[in-house]
Amino acid sequence: MDCCIVSALWCLIPLYLLIHFLFFIFGDADFTLLWASLFGHRPEKKLKGLVVWITGASSGIGEELAYQLAKCGSRLILSARREDELNRVKRCCLERYGLQDEDILVLPLDLLERTSHEEKTKTVIQHFGHIDILINNGGRTQRSLCVETSLDVYQALIELNYLGTISLTKQVLPYMTQKGTGSIVTVNSISGLAGTPLATGYSASKHALQGFFNSLRTELTDFPNILISSVCPGPVQSEIVHNAFTEELNKSVAVAGNQEHKMSTSRCVHLMLVGISNGVKEMWITHQPFLMFCYMWQYTPTFAWFITNLLGRKRVQNFKAGLDADSSYFRKPKTY
Ligand SMILES: NC(=O)c1ccc[n+]([C@@H]2O[C@H](COP(=O)([O-])OP(=O)(O)OC[C@H]3O[C@@H](n4cnc5c(N)ncnc54)[C@H](OP(=O)(O)O)[C@@H]3O)[C@@H](O)[C@H]2O)c1
After folding, report:
1. Catalytic one of 97, 154, 162, 202
2. Could you tell me the residue ranges of all domains in the chain?
3. What residues contact 5, with CB distance under 8 A and at least 6 apart?
4. How many C-beta atoms lie closer than 10 Å to residue 123's C-beta?
5. Residue 202 appears among annotated catalytic residues
6. 289: cis peptide before it, omega within 30°?
7. What distance in angstroms lies between residue 109's CA and the mean position of ligand 1's atoms?
8. Whole-angstrom distance, CA of residue 202 vs CA of residue 63
9. Range 30-301 classified under CATH 3.40.50.720
10. Integer distance in angstroms from the first to the last C-alpha of the chain?
């Protein structure tokens, strides 16, 4: 009998490894998140009725978050600078998902205006009474070589992506510690895990966020029901390249490039919501070869440098050829 159990276990190990290998080759997220998406809690059950504050809700990932959360029945606060775009997103949510007008608060907010964040947070509390989830999503990237980039751009990236995010988090956190529950979810990037050429300042701001939230999470061990989660997507379809900083503060990107090769916004957001519903602390959401890249940075950093240099060289070549820097690494980039 014992012998049969041992033999069965020996057969299961290769099967287990094969499943993980296939997950790795064809997956678009880390193992924890993929297992959660197969066997974990469903977002529509866990997020129904929760009050979720989304920054950067006027386009891209934030806009899609609003739609998928509205579909789950969450109540929303939509923030970004462009009020007209936020109203458009709100209208779409109401039309498509049958929420009531008072379930969605449009709250224009500039992450750079840190002195306004206390007042904005009070407005949310007055409207909903509490905040269940803050999704720190607003931010901008960078497309420029370090040697050509003004220091003002580096300052702006830190002010927006890092200090703006921390400022709002610091306003919201006391309401969560008082209640003993809540989630602070920050949209980081795989550029926050490893270096990214043409985005030295962006990558630095995201690394800073990673350090901040990893430290905050351990500081909050007395609050086991407060989730601090970092989401690290690879390239995702959005307006991010169009809105990127370049060499100078007021210079915009010349070519945003084709976005088709990037992960769809809806898939990225679906995985994010799965992660939030299942209390995942760090999520890697990306196709190959970027997924392999994340694993190598985590487990084999020396080898990761070799791959980083290959991908990095291609990125800089794309940029210098006037293409989107993220144009496919293994196929001939589309120029259309
Ligand atoms: N797309 C990707 O490939 C990718 C990959 C990894 C990580 N991310 C991260 O995902 C997040 C969302 O980016 P996205 O891809 O959805 O890009 P996006 O379409 O450009 O959206 C960025 C959002 O940030 C808001 N924003 C910009 N400056 C702001 C400010 N000063 N104050 C308040 N809000 C501001 C924008 O709204 P307003 O202009 O109306 O203010 C917009 O809603 C970012 O944190 C980005 O770093 C994106």
Report:
1. 202
2. 30-301
3. none
4. 14
5. yes
6. yes
7. 13
8. 21
9. yes
10. 65
